[in-house]
Structures
1.
Amino acid sequence: MTSTTAPSSTRPGLLAELPTLADCIARPYDNFSVLRLILALAVVVSHAFSVSTGGHEPLYLSTGFSLGEYAVNGFFTISGFLVTMSFARRGWRDYIVARTLRIAPAFIVVTLAMAVFGSLITTLSFADYWRDPQVGRFIVATLTTFKSAGALPGVFADNPLRAPLGTVWTLKYEVLCYLGVLLFGVAIGLSRRGVALAIIAGFGIAIVLLDVLYPEAGKAVQTSLRLPFLFGIGAVFYLYRDEVRITSWIVLMLVAVTWLAQDTSFYKALNFATGAYGIIWLAVAPGLSSRAFDLKTDLSYGVYLLGWPVQQTLQAFSPQMPIEAMLPIAVVLSLLVAMVSWHVVEKPALGLKARILNHALRQDPRSAAI
């Protein structure tokens, strides 16, 4: 009897049998939109502690990073992946318009709306509030430098933290990463993916060396490496989508390696890389992604921007309310104001994008919402 089994030398390896990232994103749906919303809500949960006490939550004390920081890590990985895909599919002109209209309109409206809202809740008189030069400084600093620590006169004066828009600082890094993709795509070309991989490896090495040579470095220095590194990992995943394999086994392996390295200088870089792969796996892995999770309304940006002022307002008017009582209210209100932001500002801006580019908007929801 002749055997029909192929010789072992011709069998595909285990890795080759696993789905590639390209295979996964070729499907008509994914979990990117629902994951972004979950991450935005995680930021709200994390900020419940800082807004009410000015301190850190339990996860920060056990891992060195808060739930909000882990959520921002996920945001930047997803953004790096989808924004790089956006550039590859659109080209630089469409990319500039799309990025600008996704970030700027809601950011500008929220900043101005917060200044107006401040006049309604300030401890100053209405006239004294608007005469105070701090109002103008708040608007200018927020819109030009993404400053999140600025205060408004008489607003949230008795809160542990006074900042009305405490999350906008990450937009600075987001915009810089957008510019990085644009410059790389135009000057070097996305086809030169080995160069991109080398750049991201350099960021990873810098994170390790920082921990070795300057372990007492402040959060600002660490963040300036962490967020581009995570964004870049997402971008590299897209560029190497035909080679990257998607499987829970890689997730488990990375988690194990990171756990073993927790007392070494490699821990932070491994922690970030593991989280980056994990969030992409959650977004596209067969068996996890579902059409039901492919949301048509993207509230994540609105929740992220507006969750903080919602919590600050609740804290100002109910300072004695315990976190476990205030948090559900904050989540519901954040979703509601984010819904208003989406329908009044963000969705119309995305529609304007098609008219500016003089063609019909034919994007799938995941591209339109990034």
Note: The first helix runs from residue 14 to 17.
2.
Amino acid sequence: MKSHPPIQFPSQFLWGAATSAYQIEGAHDVDGRAPSIWDSFAKTPGRVVNGDNGDIACDSYRRVEEDVALLKQMGARAYRFSIAWPRVMPHGRGEVNPLGIAYYKRLVSLLRDAGIAPMATLYHWDLPQALHDEGGWMNRRTAQDFAAFAAVMFDALGESVPFWFTVNEPWCASFLSHAIGEHAPGEKDLNRAVTVAHHLLLGHGLAMTEFRKRKLGGQIGMAPNVDWREPYSQDPEDIAACERGLDWFNRWFIDPIYHGRYPAAMAARYAELGIRAPIEDGDMATISQHPDMLGINYYTGSFAKAPANPLPLRPGDSPQRQMDALRNLDTVNVPGFAKTHIDWPIFPEGFTKVLTWLRDEYGNPPVFITENGACDNTQVGHDGQVHDALRVEYMHRHVIALHRAIRSGCDIRGYMAWSLLDNFEWAYGYGKRFGLIHVDFGTQQRTPKDSFHWYSQLIANNGCAA
């Protein structure tokens, strides 16, 4: 008999899990796949911890039936995956690889047969190396190439995919990758990062145009990552500092979609550094086509306050110092805050706050939580199980925070846990584990963790204890 816990979600709420192609698929040189910028970056000495790379990863390209069976065992109602651009179009444009298309058709078919709604992300950072060699996202043409790739996938998968996301975490693909240099291609130039951010948004808009042309019955949107900076006090300076943080991290990518412009105050601060987004006529209209939904990736947040000694905006400073000056806020590390094993504060209150902020800022758009999860490096114990108590507590607290947002009127349609599998965690390599399922990367053995079983019960009951 099914129980009815006190924290109960709407009857049509979609529970599921998420992954991305480079992090799980492996098979890097199989069936016509060409290199991406992450293949090149990961094989550059010093870029990734332990020199790890995604050549094999979780070998999900070969183990797709096993992974879909695990999703079904968990009770997932949706699965968010990404499509590897260089697997489908090895040169980034032109020739389409039929074996790449066949793999994603097979994945979608397996999901649908299992009663799981496919949720496809078109760009999760694996730009074909061939396009990067021509300038990558610095080159405006890449946005058009992305739209052509999107069109190929819309034609191939059509309405068998009910949910599409264009670009995953554009902040990471622009600033973390081109200004901070921690992700591929590893550049450190703030001006380039702002250009890349604009071209990513333009690519999103052009892909939306291709989707609308086809009059497909599914839904489409973008999936930015957001965080939340809670003012340390009600001092107006602390509040203003947190607003700058929202401008820099959240609004820079969401305002163009819903308001057709960049946040004016932050654009003015960039201009003081001589940096402007390369906007051409018609760009903002293309970017601001009304999406059907918004994907939200949330992991952490913090308290923040105005700095005692604010940094001046100076064109000659390093990109990191310029970004610190643009935000002009200090993070406050409050003693006693628990952290995950990647050292991120556990701040579920920020989850509720950022969702209600989105409700108020953008007219309460339909939202899917496309990523939320915790790094918990607990290994398989002597009993053959993985007792990842930190992840269970993190998920429990964030699910309650999500429920609070829904009760507050936020239009939230589903939640995708990050991640289904332990995987290649970008610059951290294989040392940071986010999976509901433990992967032994030597044998590829999958072991569902305590969090997998907890989440399975949550899905079965469509809710949990308070």
Note: The two ends are 20 Å apart (CA to CA).
